[in-house]
Specification:
Blueprint: H1 9-15, H2 19-53, H3 58-83, H4 94-111, H5 119-129, H6 132-154, H7 164-251, H8 255-281, H9 286-298, H10 308-326, E1 332-338, H11 346-367, E2 371-378, E3 382-389, H12 412-422, E4 426-431, E5 437-444
Parallel strand pairs: 1-2
Antiparallel strand pairs: 2-3, 3-5, 4-5
Helix pairs in contact: 1-3, 1-7, 2-5, 2-7, 3-4, 4-5, 5-6, 5-7, 6-7, 7-8, 7-11, 7-12, 9-10, 10-11, 11-12
């Protein structure tokens, strides 16, 4: 139950198979074994001297098992606490336990000199249970008691003088115990420092894993927010407007226009369903996939298929005109292509398509424009897209709130900025009230990491 050597049960367990921990275990086993052997030898000698002299010291023989029981009780309690920290912790009582052991030892050496050699394991216990400032005086006092006991039992009773071996033996034993005990203490501190370092490392790793998980969750939440805003939210907005237009057409008995609007509602709902399924699969946008499949089916092998992004943007312009007409607005939306298209990585195509979808949705919902032009340019080292409209315009600095509006709208600009920034591109918005709007996006090609993504 020594408070320092065994006082930190997790310490030796956490130190595992380190060299210091192995040495500590060996020293503890030697300490306990030495105490048991010396006590047993003293009892055997005491019993062996009895029959010949007819003078068995029964009080000493009765105290020896008590000392053994007290010693074993302390070590067993400490061992159980080391194996399971939830069990009774004997460390606060270690000094009392040591006092009881020393008191029983004093009674035994008063009865018989055979028990004086138990002082050597007691020296180690005193070093490891007591603070050093108390342990050294305790060892010195125990050494003096050993010398006195040896003199009393061997020469003092007959008036003999104190002999040099009676002093040198205990003194050298005490000095050896102090040196060895200090080395033991140094090993213990090394093992304890290793345990603390290992715990700190585990704590740091756990915190790092937690922060990485939180960062990943936030990044995924932001990605889903962008996708939902640029796809599902825009689609639902279109469905609402088309539904209102179909209702108005039915009120006007214009069944043909109502049927056309309902067809558009069905197409938009189907597209939204495909987008929702795409979130689960994590594939490319359905519009790009459909455009690629249609090009492969419609174009003969001798004609190169049209770029899926180009085809998607053309269809988007056509859809924008239809939705604007359903809303009662006269909007002409045109797509222009400049330069020879090159195959773009999927993150580039997704970003450009989402930018066009969000910008054109704003055009026919908010801008009250008559003309909108989407221009896709392949410029060698970069790909650019400009979305122009001649609508009402706005003040760009007035829509920079990252939280959006209370109704959940106003998130498009922030979403677009995040998408473009993720590809090391640039986003410029030129607008003023009454002067229309230009949204300009530039994405570098070169050796960008995203360039190599499928």
């Amino acid at each position: 139950m020594d408070g320092k050597a065994h006082g930190t049960p997790a310490g030796t367990a956490a130190a595992g198979t380190t060299g210091a921990a192995v040495i500590l275990r060996v020293l503890r086993v030697c300490l306990h074994s030495g105490f048991a052997v010396l006590l047993l030898v003293a009892v055997v000698r005491l019993l062996g001297a009895g029959p010949g002299s007819g003078d068995v010291d029964w009080p000493a023989l009765g105290l020896a098992p008590v000392l053994a029981a007290v010693y074993v009780l302390g070590t067993v309690l400490e061992k159980h606490h080391s194996a399971d920290p939830s069990r009774f912790d004997p460390r606060p009582y270690s000094a009392w336990w040591l006092g009881a052991v020393c008191l029983l030892w004093l009674l035994l050496i008063w009865a018989s000199a055979d028990f004086v050699w138990l002082a050597f394991p007691l020296f180690f216990l005193q070093l490891h249970v007591l603070p050093l400032r108390l342990a050294l005086p305790a060892i010195a006092l125990s050494t003096l008691l050993v010398i006195v006991a040896l003199w009393f039992h061997n020469a003092g009773a007959d008036g003999g003088a104190l002999q040099l071996p009676m002093v040198l033996g205990p003194a050298f034993g005490a000095a050896f115990a102090v040196v060895t005990g200090l080395a033991y203490r140094a090993l213990y501190l090394e093992a304890e420092n290793q345990r603390l370092a290992a715990e700190e490392l585990r704590r740091t790793r756990a915190e790092l894993a937690r922060s990485q998980h939180d960062a990943g969750a936030l990044a995924e939440r932001a990605r889903l927010a962008r996708e939902i805003h640029d796809t599902l939210a825009q689609g639902f907005s279109s469905i609402v407007l088309m539904g209102r237009s179909a209702e108005k057409a039915l009120d006007d008995a214009d069944t043909a226009r109502a049927r056309d609007r309902l067809r558009t509602v069905q197409e938009t709902a189907s597209a939204n369903l495909a987008e929702a399924r795409n979130f689960v699969r994590g594939l490319q946008p359905p519009a790009l996939a459909e455009s690629s499949a249609e090009n492969s089916a419609e174009n003969p092998e001798e004609n190169p298929p049209e770029d899926p992004l180009v085809n998607s943007l053309r269809r988007l312009c056509e859809k924008t005109e239809t939705e604007a007409a359903a809303r009662g607005a006269r909007l002409r939306c045109r797509f222009d292509l400049e330069g020879a298209p090159v195959e773009l990585p999927n993150p580039y195509r997704t970003t450009l398509l989402r930018a066009a979808q969000a910008s054109l949705a704003n055009v026919w919902v908010h801008a009250r424009a008559g003309t909108a032009v989407v221009t896709l340019s392949f410029l060698g080292s970069e790909v650019a897209m400009d979305i122009y409209d001649d609508g009402a315009g706005f003040e760009p600095s007035a829509v920079t709130d990252p939280a959006g509006r209370p109704d959940g709208s106003g998130y498009g600009l922030k979403s677009l900025q995040e998408r473009v920034a993720a590809l090391a591109g640039s986003l410029d918005i030129e607008s003023a009230p009454g002067e229309g709007t230009v949204v300009a996006i530039r994405l570098p090609l070169g050796d960008s990491p995203a360039r190599n993504e499928p």
